[in-house]
Design a protein that fits this description.
Blueprint (H helix, E strand, L loop, with lengths): L7 E11 L2 E7 L12 E4 L2 E9 L2 E7 H6 L10 E6 L18 E10 L4 E6 L13 E4 L2 E8 L3 E6 L1 H6 L10 E6 L1 H22 L1
Antiparallel strand pairs: 1-2, 1-6, 2-5, 3-4, 3-6, 4-5, 7-8, 7-12, 8-11, 9-10, 9-12, 10-11
Length: 206
């Protein structure tokens, strides 16, 4: 589990294509300071398992399913990525509950600069729109954010200077893909509610 509070900006050192997968090496001195084989590190919102740690870098395997659902399929050597270690028991939960299981990708549509923050418009896949609500939580490239406005095909978030400076969201431009993870609580509520709603609908139809 993660919190969506990015610990550092790392960068991709190398990518090796494998059958139905890829092996990626990422530099990040903070997240590798206590990392070991088998640990989980969120890379721009994608939970990856550490295969090897060497100096200030770690290597992870990215499966086909992850490449299909996330923007990691398009990363290249030199690209910046947001990094966060798994949450430790007993620490403060600064963001919200983040699994690192990307639900899909969105596209940066526009940016509006204000004096002290930026409003970013992000395209929302139709399959995810029902999980996104105003003032609710969403994870964008591994960053826990609060939804400002939402429609059927897009939503907006407000980025403070710290987020702009310390994460990749400060560098994203219109057209860029970003990883999206909706609030897992919304998905569980839907799963539990559907049978009851169907039963009610059936009773009303009789």
């Amino acid at each position: 589990m993660f919190t969506g509070i990015v610990e550092e900006l790392g960068h991709v050192e190398a990518i090796e294509d494998l059958p139905d997968a890829a092996r990626i090496r990422i530099a990040g001195p903070i997240v590798t300071s206590d990392a070991k084989h088998g640990d989980s590190i969120a890379v721009s919102g994608v939970c990856l398992t550490v295969v090897e740690v060497e100096n200030d870098s770690f290597t992870a395997d990215v499966m086909r399913e992850t490449l299909t659902r996330s923007s990691l399929a398009k990363v290249a050597a030199g690209d910046r990525v947001n990094l966060e270690r798994a949450a430790a028991v007993g620490q403060r939960l600064g963001g919200h509950i983040v699994q690192g299981h990307v639900d899909g990708t969105g596209t940066i549509l526009a940016r509006e600069k204000a004096e002290h923050w930026e409003i970013v418009h992000i395209g929302l896949p139709p399959s995810l729109s029902r999980y996104v609500v105003e003032k609710g939580s969403i994870t964008v490239d591994g960053v826990s954010l609060t939804v400002v406005t939402v429609s059927e095909d897009q939503f907006t978030v407000s980025l403070i200077p710290t987020t702009l400076e310390l994460t990749t969201l400060g560098q994203r431009i219109p057209g860029d893909l970003v990883n999206l993870e909706v609030d897992v609580l919304a998905k569980y509520v839907e799963r539990l509610a559907i049978p009851h709603l169907r039963a009610i609908a059936g009773e009303e139809a009789q």
